[in-house]
């Protein structure tokens, strides 16, 4: 197991260096003068240009600049935003809990509905139920989620007036963030109705972000289940006279879950990409909206740092998923 | 706007024809796939004939008919069957023209990603060693980013617009083709027919592209279908974020972005473009599922 871990880490390091090179070169690929872009000043005298260039370290060789940036990254210094002048890491840490909370709710939503739906479709293979569930899953899989979000807003916020249109909590409530997770903070605040408000703000974004993972998980569960249900040991379990519930729920499910867990792990990338669109639609103050806003504000250091941190998160989660996979399925390790 | 799936050689030798017949037999057993196929054909026809069947020009603004609802609602007009948008353009005509953009995006992006991916993948798989390692590490780097985020940032670097959006999406989709091609080439490389070809004097290029490549097509076709639908979805998402096709282009995602502020006043300006995206992507994914089942030899004989 240790050797497997080291092997995986050995692959991760060059990938991370590659990611950092992409994020770093990116500013240099931009049309225009990087010094003017980085300092946010359009017109400047040659003396001032040289001064700022020196301040920012742009008069040094590119390789040195890169190594310097990498040293900063390793020590948690991603530079400052052009627009807000705040350290990028601080901004990221303030906004990330919002994305984490939303993504967590979305993946729970997807798992809780997707796995039972997939199991049910597999048991009822070829029937009306199977076709309905799999048809719905394919529609979900093909869904442009930015449009799906707008539709839900029209129906639930516009016509029924059940849910708010945007944000994380009603403006009526204010309390200092303790954990950064609105569901927990609203409970801790002890203000009546705050938790309910947080939940109602979370429902539509959760559904929107969870739709594609839900479809993927349902499809994967069904096919994994079908494969396992054809195995000899399942037939043996049936022949022993075990109840169908026990055969499906324990014997088959345990093995069918192996590929499903991998699939769930792979949804992290899908969730973070989906967060870009979902957070934009619902004005959800997370890192997805932060990235889109930074692209529009041309806040290049933020884009650079954000790219690196998001890719880092995905790589680490993928590594954890692989290790878990190695734990539950020992065959893979060799 | 050529449709790649209907491009067939004119004369077919009998074995090729039998293969096709067998393929169609398995493909047509999947009812969803057949529905998806005909939907897609319909979309291609709509795209080709858009100038003939659209009742209005997609850019024509009828200033006295702003935000007219669809014909079945109160205040609807027969001249604008699906209503008009906030500046009085006919929704139906814009949607019909939009089919051209989406299919064009799908074809161009998939072609770039497929050709580039196959070329790089064959090289990696055939030569192996350090060439393979370098190529695959680069692909890992691209795959480490969420595809939409990388495409968004690339478009920000290149400048917003449809062409740059297509380049960015092709770039983020291309590693999947590299991986598939490489894996297939590595399995095929050791087979006897390749050795036989090598012994009879075939050069590297011939071995790579004439001998090995034709035997690796099945997974590539399935992946191409998947890429086709992701390309359309991602391009629409970039258009929605304001980084893809620019207004007044009747691209469906861009139309949605323009209509966003009217969602609570005029449901039709938001509903129809998204529905068009969904139907197109769904049709292609249905075909993709059918292709996967029909081309997968594991499932075929069972």
Verbal overview:
The complex is a heterodimer of chains A (334) and B (302). Chain A has 13 helices and no strands. With 334 residues, chain A is mostly helical. The longest helix of chain A is centred in the C-terminal third of the chain and has 38 residues, at 244-281. Chain A is globular and about 85 Å long. Chain B is mainly α and 302 residues long. The two termini of chain B are 39 Å apart. Classes of the chains: A mainly alpha (334), B mainly alpha (302). Chain A binds chain B through residues 11, 14-16, 18-19, 22, 26, 29-31, 135, 138-139, 141-144, 146-148, 150-151, 153-154, 157-158, 269-270, 272-273, 276-277, 280, 291-292, 295-296, 298, 303, 307, 310-311, 314-315, and chain B through 32, 137-138, 140-141, 144-150, 152-153, 156-157, 159, 229, 233, 236-237, 240-243, 253, 256, 260, 263-264, 267, 270-271, 273-275, 277-278, 281-282, 285-286, 289.
List keywords for this structure.
heterodimer, A: 334 residues, mainly alpha, 13 helices, 75% helix, B: 302 residues, 12 helices, elongated, disordered N terminus
Break the fold down into its secondary structure elements and pairings.
The complex is a heterodimer of chains A (334) and B (302).
Chain A: H1 2-29, H2 34-39, H3 46-55, H4 62-74, H5 88-123, H6 128-141, H7 145-159, H8 182-189, H9 194-229, H10 232-239, H11 244-281, H12 287-297, H13 300-328
Helix pairs in contact in A: 1-13, 5-6, 5-9, 5-11, 6-9, 7-9, 7-11, 8-9, 9-11, 10-11, 11-12, 11-13, 12-13
Chain B: H1 14-28, H2 31-53, H3 91-127, H4 129-143, H5 147-158, H6 162-189, H7 192-199, H8 204-212, H9 217-240, H10 252-259, H11 267-295, H12 297-300
């Amino acid at each position: 197991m240790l050797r497997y871990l080291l092997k995986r880490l050995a692959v991760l390091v060059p990938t991370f260096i590659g990611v950092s090179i992409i994020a770093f070169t990116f500013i240099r690929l931009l049309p225009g003068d990087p010094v003017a872009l980085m300092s946010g000043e359009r017109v400047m005298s040659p003396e001032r240009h040289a001064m700022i260039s020196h301040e920012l370290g742009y008069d040094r060789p590119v390789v040195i600049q890169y190594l310097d940036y990498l040293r900063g990254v390793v020590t948690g210094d991603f530079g400052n935003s052009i627009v807000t002048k705040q350290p990028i890491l601080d901004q990221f840490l303030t906004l990330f809990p919002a994305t984490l909370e939303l993504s967590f709710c979305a993946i729970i939503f997807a798992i809780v509905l997707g796995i039972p739906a997939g199991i049910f479709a597999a048991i009822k293979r070829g029937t009306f139920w199977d076709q309905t569930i799999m048809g719905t899953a394919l529609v979900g899989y093909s869904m442009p989620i930015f449009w799906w979000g707008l539709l839900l807003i029209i129906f639930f916020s516009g016509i029924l007036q059940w849910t708010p249109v945007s944000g994380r909590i009603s403006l009526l409530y204010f309390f200092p963030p303790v954990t950064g997770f609105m569901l927990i903070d609203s409970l801790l605040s002890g203000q009546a109705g705050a938790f309910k408000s947080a939940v109602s703000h979370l429902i539509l974004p959760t559904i929107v972000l969870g739709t594609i993972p839900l479809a993927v998980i349902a499809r994967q569960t069904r096919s994994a289940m079908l494969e396992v249900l054809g195995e000899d040991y399942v037939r043996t379990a049936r022949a022993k006279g075990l109840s169908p519930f026990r055969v499906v729920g324990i014997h088959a499910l345990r093995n069918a879950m192996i590929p499903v867990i991998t699939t769930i792990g792979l949804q992290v990338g899908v969730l973070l990409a989906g967060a870009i669109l979902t957070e934009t639609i619902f004005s959800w103050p997370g890192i997805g909206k932060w990235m889109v806003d930074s692209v529009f504000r041309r806040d290049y250091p933020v884009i650079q740092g954000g790219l690196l941190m998001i890719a880092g998160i995905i790589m680490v989660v993928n590594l954890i998923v692989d290790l878990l996979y190695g734990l539950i399925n020992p065959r893979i390790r060799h | 706007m050529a449709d790649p799936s209907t491009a067939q050689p004119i004369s077919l030798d009998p074995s090729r024809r039998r293969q096709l017949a067998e393929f169609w037999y398995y493909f047509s057993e999947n009812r969803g796939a057949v529905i998806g196929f005909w939907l897609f054909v319909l979309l291609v026809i709509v795209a080709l004939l858009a100038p003939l069947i659209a009742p209005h020009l997609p850019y024509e603004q009828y200033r006295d008919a702003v935000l007219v609802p669809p014909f079945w609602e109160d205040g609807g007009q027969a001249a604008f069957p699906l209503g008009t948008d906030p500046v009085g353009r006919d929704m139906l005509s814009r949607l019909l023209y939009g089919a051209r953009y989406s299919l064009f995006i799908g074809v161009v992006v998939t072609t770039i990603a497929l050709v580039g991916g196959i070329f790089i993948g064959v090289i990696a798989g055939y030569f192996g060693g350090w060439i393979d390692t370098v190529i695959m590490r680069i692909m890992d780097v691209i795959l480490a980013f969420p595809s939409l985020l990388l495409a968004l940032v690339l478009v920000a670097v290149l400048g917003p617009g449809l062409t740059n959006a297509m380049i960015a999406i092709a770039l983020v989709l291309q590693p999947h083709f590299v991986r598939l091609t490489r894996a297939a080439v590595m399995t095929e490389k050791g087979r006897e027919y390749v050795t036989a070809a090598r012994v009879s004097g075939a050069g590297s290029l011939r071995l790579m592209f004439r001998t090995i490549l034709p035997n690796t097509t099945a997974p590539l076709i399935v992946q191409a279908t998947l890429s086709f639908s992701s390309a359309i979805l991602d391009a629409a998402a970039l258009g929605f974020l304001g980084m893809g096709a620019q207004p007044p282009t009747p691209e469906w995602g861009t139309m949605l972005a323009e209509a966003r502020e009217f969602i609570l006043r005029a449901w039709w300006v938001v509903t129809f473009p998204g529905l068009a995206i969904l139907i197109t992507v769904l049709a292609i994914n249905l075909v993709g599922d059918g292709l996967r089942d029909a081309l997968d030899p594991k499932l075929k004989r069972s």
